[in-house]
């Protein structure tokens, strides 16, 4: 009887264990199904946003008017003007373009003057400039100025005590929070280079940035009721430096508020994809595993751990095969392995991430042989073949995830032609967002984007930085984009780890430590960012882009009024004043006199107390 009793007890324990396992399995399955349901609703949301955009009446921004003075015959001035216009557009600020070779400045209509030439006379005579600022106007010199007679008359008003010859100013040292969260950032690298004037500054002048060799680059000098913002350099013509311009502009006027996207997006290109067979010497020495086992048992668990610890939502960009086929048929590939797609894809979705497309293979969708050959790729013969390859990729993914809708695309090597774009649209109506590159491309072959909704309704949402290692250029690009538009958008490749050049000949243990340190620093610098997978982020961004804000700045308050309200929106506020009563918004301090404002209604207001 005793034996029988113990046996019954064991049976009950086993049954209980099976029941608990079933409950956990069902819970996991329900969570997975919920993610699928949320994914399918994205298309409905996209269609609603596009329908809203198509019938919207263009509402001109109101508030302070920023007059951009430029010379249309000068390429340098045109570049400065273009960057100023785009920055103000993202900020939801009103701007007016003034051609200095055709029009005289109407000082009364300009609250702020942005000069994109090196000639003070393009604003007006010295007396007009002095009186405009003294009576409450603001002037931003976006370029180093020419030392002419007007300069010699006015330089003391700019906060300068002495000046000498032109010098090369290499690198940068931020002596302020001009780039949010980056005070004291020091970069001594040739990618930051300016032609500047050697100047001495008055004790009352506020130095905001200097070169690595101590040349003042950016400073503000209050004069009367207004102020001058001086940029003593030439780098604002480059797109990557827009955030530096945005930060400087936000420090020129008191109580400056502007719109941001507030997004943190992370892509894993070539994932899930076929995994190379065999071993890698460094990986095998470190983990005694072949490549496939390493990715499954080490790399992927580590990546999931980092995403959870530092608040990241991965968007994977699927590749079906690494063959170089550019002609049909595409439905048979030796290295196709749906097992990896299902196992990695399921965990990716469960973690809050998203499955997107990179391509049927890694051949960029271009017809131009000169472009494809730069990457060692084959050019496609015709648009129809590109379409057929994408159709095969759709079939492949549907076989693994029948209820899942793929909506995002990352071009292989960040290259995509007009024909390739059209080819995708013909067979992939759910294509919602394309994510390539934001920075300028010297080669001229990359698919370079703005944050925008294209005329055909596809959302353009570029990436900014890449890699497991933090480099000075990426740090600078990140800081600029964060300050300008409030976006962190990064990507890595799984095979960076087994590539000798991209891994810096390091093992995964060191690479992973570097990656963790990198993401830790990002989280520490911008803990307020909202982490979203690509399509959710893109739809949120599209809504923001097509929402206009009217501004009303009083002496003791700032008010925003949106033409439509579709959910919480984010803004950056710069103010030295104490904050008072808030209406329909929350405010969080994120830096020295820098605040994140979250509006929760179409009308919101921030009141100020004392200094």
UniProtKB/TrEMBL annotation:
Domain of life: Bacteria
UniProt record, GO biological process: carbohydrate metabolic process
SUPFAM superfamilies xref list: Glycoside hydrolase/deacetylase
The name this protein goes by in its record: DUF2194 domain-containing protein
Organism, as annotated: Psychrobacillus vulpis
Phylogenetic lineage: Bacteria, Bacillati, Bacillota, Bacilli, Bacillales
